[in-house]
Write a structure and sequence with these properties.
29% helix, 132 residues, 5-stranded mixed sheet, alpha+beta
Length: 132
């Protein structure tokens, strides 16, 4: 793991403290890296109407896309889980929309437990614009 990757992990872990989770008390943090090296931090933001909650991964992606970014190289997701945190299905589908299938995704749990994977491994046989 490079120094840069360690920085991305630290940014995702630091985001856990910013998460707005008054209902589940389950913070998630993310760090999205563009191909040019810009970083976008994301947190999960809950709502009393649970269906309106937004995940950390989608927060980071939507922040970047709203700033005109379209080319990404890495996503780090952190949570307070014994095993590396797993993104939900909605986040996986949004990842497929904006990321290349082979883009690396690092999943982090408590005590530095991590798993390296890719977008395609997270959502094989995904639904894409090719299917329209």
């Amino acid at each position: 793991m490079t120094q840069t990757e360690n920085e991305w992990i630290e940014i995702a872990i630091q985001a856990l403290e910013k998460a707005y989770v008054p209902y589940s008390h389950f913070p998630v943090g993310a760090c999205l890296v563009t191909k040019e090296g810009k970083l976008y931090q994301g947190i999960n933001i809950e709502n009393a109407s649970y269906g309106l909650t937004n995940c950390a991964e989608r927060t980071a992606i939507f922040k970047a896309v709203s700033e005109g970014e379209r080319e990404f190289k890495h996503l780090v997701i952190a949570g307070h889980t014994p095993e590396p945190i797993s993104p939900c299905g909605a986040c996986r589908q949004v990842m497929v929309e904006f990321f290349e299938p082979d883009m690396p995704v690092t999943l982090i749990g408590d005590h530095g437990v991590l798993k390296e994977t890719t977008v395609e491994e997270l959502l094989p046989y995904s639904f894409t614009k090719k299917d329209l």
